[in-house]
């Protein structure tokens, strides 16, 4: 879908490319660890999608505190509404439908798909999941970063 990235090929081959770091952005593990390490140098708020789905208001409050803002409950409600997956999927500014198909070809796949956690289970085979788990453990060892699966 993202025409700026190399052709991913079939899913089976893509998983191998991903684990080997043959991606447009290089190794996922390196990419993630480098950005995670920036918290030592800069004032960065890291958020996790699973947390946002679990309790959007709590996560919006985290952003408010991070920015030093104290907003009314009404503003919190509106922010929650406008940042919901449903609202963002319908918004051309956030769903990228306004971007030319030569860059984001959404006839291949929509940029925003389901907005759920755990859909990887519908795509990974048991063997792919085991390989990814091994890769993840190796890549994230030595960090305090932990993703929820």
Automatic annotation (TrEMBL):
InterPro entries (UniProt xref): P-loop_NTPase (IPR027417), Sulfotransferase_dom (IPR000863)
Domain Sulfotransferase: 2-143
Transferase found in the keyword field: yes
This protein's UniProt keywords: Transferase
Coiled-coil residues: none
EC number of the protein: 2.8.2.-
Keyword Protease: no
GO molecular function terms noted in the UniProt entry: sulfotransferase activity
Source organism, top-level taxon: Eukaryota
Family: Belongs to the sulfotransferase 1 family.
Protein name: Sulfotransferase
Record organism: Eleutherodactylus coqui (Puerto Rican coqui)
């Amino acid at each position: 879908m993202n025409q700026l990235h190399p052709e991913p090929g079939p899913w089976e081959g893509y998983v191998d490319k991903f684990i080997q770091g043959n991606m447009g952005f290089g190794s996922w593990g390196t990419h993630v660890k480098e950005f995670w390490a920036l918290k030592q140098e800069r004032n960065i708020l890291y958020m996790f999608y699973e947390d946002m789905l679990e309790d959007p208001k709590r996560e919006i409050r985290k952003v408010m505190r991070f920015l030093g803002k104290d907003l009314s409950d009404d503003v919190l409600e509106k922010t929650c509404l406008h940042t919901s997956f449903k609202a963002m999927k319908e918004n051309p500014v956030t769903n990228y439908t306004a971007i030319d198909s030569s860059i984001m070809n959404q006839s291949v796949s929509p940029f925003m798909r389901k907005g759920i956690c755990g859909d990887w289970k519908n795509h990974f085979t048991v063997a792919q999941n085991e390989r990814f788990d091994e890769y993840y453990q190796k890549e994230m060892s030595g960090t305090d970063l932990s993703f929820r699966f």
